[in-house]
Amino acid sequence: AGCTPPAVSCPPAEGAALQILGSGGPIADDARASSGYIVWIDGESRVLIDAGGGTFLRFGEAGATFTALDFIGLSHFHTDHSADFQALIKSGNFSDRERSLSIAGPEGDAPFPGLKEFLQSMFGKNHGAYAYLSAFLDGSSSTPMLTPREIPRGEITRVYPSEDLNIDAMRVPHGIVPAAAIRVRSADQTFVFATDQNGGDPAFVEFAKGADVLVMHMVVPESVKGVGRRLHAPPSVIGEIAAGAGAGKLVLSHFMARSLADLEQNVSLVRERYKGEIVLAEDLACVRP
Fold first, then answer.
1. DSSP symbols for 196-222
2. 31, 116, 146, 186 — which has fewest CB within 10 A?
3. Cis geometry, peptide bond prior to residue 26 (ω within 30 degrees of 0)
4. Any idea what DSSP says for residue 133?
5. For residues 203 and 232, is the Cβ–Cβ distance under 8 A?
6. Could you report the per-residue pLDDT of 245-284, keeping only the tens digit for each?
7. Nearest to 254 by CA among 18, 24, 19
8. What is the pTM of this model?
9. In whole angstroms, how large is the CA radius of gyration of the chain?
């Protein structure tokens, strides 16, 4: 299908790279972890995007460390994007980290919580499912405190600024589910994570303009209708978005049986519209801009 297999290893000693922790979806039938990605910068695992089931194991296999993280972005609160988050946070008890950790996620919209409510439901001192980890919310006992930033509708939000790393987010349409795309810029390299979305907001194309690496989720076939189409973009729309954004590389990820069943045909529909380099995601694969 004219795709490039991931061939380089992470982490690079210099510059930035994307490592795929999980390239699968919510069904445990494909030997893939659910969604999760690391952005490596100069050999350090500084950004984590999503933490779906299986990514806790992949995080360790990749050689990433909790201490090195500057930022965690949770695109939304479906289990295949967030189920291993609490396990990863627990691992922080065994690190030497003291500095706080920035985390961003969408504002809530019933029946889905916003990031702050999600964190309270996990780690809240009085009623959290893992109340024994409440120090991560108040920074007590020398525990690194999570500093949350919620992503509102209708605007691009700077969720992490530093001298060498800037991260922005915007809400994207994913049915009734509050979801956010995330853009990571380090030096002159830009990674954009589209997350699960139906491709219906043209503002996302502008948000993704000039991405060196654009990660999009090819979850459904071209023939999808109903709820599936309200949640996810079909291959033709993925290709149109990547072309409109002028992405340097397009990483297709979040595969499920229904998108893998006729992978060659689905990729060809993307290729008809996007002429750049396409990478098919595999767990632990590394992609350089």
1. S--S--THHHHHTTT-SEEEEE--S-T
2. 31
3. no
4. G
5. no
6. 999 999 999 999 888 889 999 999 999 999 999 999 999 9
7. 24
8. 0.96
9. 18
